[in-house]
Amino acid sequence: MSICKEIKGFSRSHERIADFFSLLAVVLLFGTIWVAVAYYRDISTWLRHDWLLHGGLLIGAIVLISFLTLGLLAVGSSRFAGNDEKCFGTFAGRRNYNGSPVRWFSAWINHMESVGKKHR
What pLDDT digit, counting tens, does each position of 35-48 carry? Predict the structure, then answer.
């Protein structure tokens, strides 16, 4: 059994915990924004001392927080997926839409609409 199916089963049988993971993702996102705004001067002063090392640490922290937020949202929203649905689908992007960037944008819009339909 893949990890995707295990997460789906867990979040369907424990909906309150899945809701809690979604809430944690929102708290993490807005908490990060609040910390960045509240401690902007301290962060910029810290960044000025050694911009190469501290800049790398800051970018690493942003990437880590982004993955944590997306992971928590994935666990929280996996209870809405159907049984016949694939676990990991990717955005087709430029592979299937050769030509102008307008087609790439329309492909992305179509993808986002289909994702929105699945999670309603």
Answer: 999 999 999 999 99
